[in-house]
């Protein structure tokens, strides 16, 4: 990337297109933060950025969402064991417990990150909180950008590492919150529809595949063998056969789901 | 917002914090584009932006994802009717068809938007494509921002309308692609687990709630009424009652799902 993307804002500090700077730039592209502290100025650079983003952003989204889901699952395991050790009546982790944990984690991440950034960058604590918030929501205005002072990108590798880990860890926590608060509702329609479809199929299959011994409601057992060939649905309604009274089994079965 | 957020970059053109500019700013915050062409500089402005984003971004996400899902559903209806009229063998819209349609829509949106922006802003066509791409992926570097020349925000209301509609429409199309390509995979684990759980519950419920008339495999109809109280699971295994031969109905039933 260094060879095709040129340093576009030479008035900012730091060696923007050495490895650390390029990595920082790539992170802001893939996470869609897009501070704009360094941007491609050549046609090749812009083209590469577009191709890179087109592949990288969906992959990044999948990665952060997967991590977020795992954070949620880990949280629920921890909540359950804590509740177990406290001998709570309700041992399962509820949605509300999870939301509380993830909100606390997000707040701690922003508070901790802000403390570090205000120390390293010389910002006020409030400004650092604002920077962390704008970064982790991926708004990324670029009015305040970390790693731009005192050639931090080349001279303070531990600070660069911290800033990048903060962004990746913070985004994972935010992804966990979004997974919990938004995505479940967003995919609910699709999920419900699929489940309804699957259930309709099952009801149909259940009506036909009633094979083996049947215990009726009055307690008697009926032996019935379909053998190895299953009757197709229409054979249950033979025009010359016995009339099936309504509600028949498949109607009942569907209604019971 | 105008009263608490101050114009922070007075060197840029346009009245940034009049209604049109503030609306543009709010759009860049809620969509997480965050060009950074105008940013809050006061403590009140930053605080308001954070609160606004904390509520608005999840709502925006839900909105765009809902629209995206509806775009996908509309596409599949259109594909189905086109296939019907062309007398295709496979009448259902496959996932691949949908991906093709949504990709074409995205490309057309970017191509069309780029043509308009290159005309209004005097950018080259390639730069306009780059701008549209960086905007619709919500990276929003802010190296190129529409509506900043010739006091467009106050003097060209039709162009302002076009730019905002382009962003909202474009993001809906991008959301449709993401819904199709990413979100379904991301929520697959959760979905599968829930479906498995629901099915296990149904299998259990199905074994108990076999109510009404039963058609056995040999064709006879058995009338059995549980009445209004359903037998709990353990009552199907009365120790003194008739021994249920295996495979019994609930075993079969579970296996058939």
TrEMBL record, chains A, B:
Signal peptide: none
Record carries keyword S-adenosyl-L-methionine: no
Chain ranges of the Potassium channel domain: 15-71, 107-182
Mode of membrane association: Multi-pass membrane protein
GO CC term, one of those recorded: plasma membrane
Localisation: Membrane
Annotated source species: Ignelater luminosus (Cucubano)
Family: Belongs to the two pore domain potassium channel (TC 1.A.1.8) family.
Full protein name: Potassium channel domain-containing protein
Alphabetically ordered keywords of this record: Ion channel, Ion transport, Membrane, Potassium, Potassium channel, Potassium transport, Transmembrane, Transmembrane helix, Transport
Gene Ontology biological process terms from the UniProt entry: stabilization of membrane potential
GO MF entries: outward rectifier potassium channel activity; potassium ion leak channel activity
Pfam families: Ion_trans_2 (PF07885)
Transmembrane segment boundaries: 21-37, 43-64, 128-147, 159-186
Major site of localization recorded for this protein: membrane
SUPFAM superfamilies recorded: Voltage-gated potassium channels
């Amino acid at each position: 990337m260094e060879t095709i993307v040129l340093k576009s804002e030479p008035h900012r500090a730091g060696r923007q297109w050495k490895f650390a700077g390029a990595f920082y730039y790539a992170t802001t592209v893939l996470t869609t933060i897009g501070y704009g502290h360094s941007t491609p100025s050549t046609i090749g650079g812009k083209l590469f950025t577009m191709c890179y983003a087109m592949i990288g952003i969906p992959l990044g989204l999948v990665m952060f969402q997967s991590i977020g889901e795992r954070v949620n699952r880990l949280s629920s395991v921890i909540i359950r064991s804590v509740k177990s050790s406290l001998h709570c009546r309700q041992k399962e982790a509820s949605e509300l417990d999870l939301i509380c944990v993830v909100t606390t984690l997000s707040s701690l991440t922003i508070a901790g990150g802000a403390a570090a950034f205000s120390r390293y960058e010389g910002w006020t604590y409030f400004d650092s909180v604002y920077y962390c918030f704008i970064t982790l929501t991926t708004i990324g205005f670029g009015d305040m950008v970390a790693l731009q002072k005192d050639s931090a990108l080349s001279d303070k590798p531990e600070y660069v590492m911290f800033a990048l880990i903060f962004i990746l860890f913070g985004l994972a926590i935010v992804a966990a919150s979004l997974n919990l608060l938004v995505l479940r509702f967003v995919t609910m329609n699709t999920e419900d529809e699929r489940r309804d479809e699957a259930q309709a199929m099952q009801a149909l299959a259940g009506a036909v595949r009633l094979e083996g011994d049947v215990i009726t409601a009055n307690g008697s057992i009926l032996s019935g063998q379909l053998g190895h060939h299953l009757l197709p649905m229409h054979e249950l309604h033979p025009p010359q056969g016995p009339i099936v009274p309504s509600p028949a089994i498949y109607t009942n079965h569907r209604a019971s789901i």
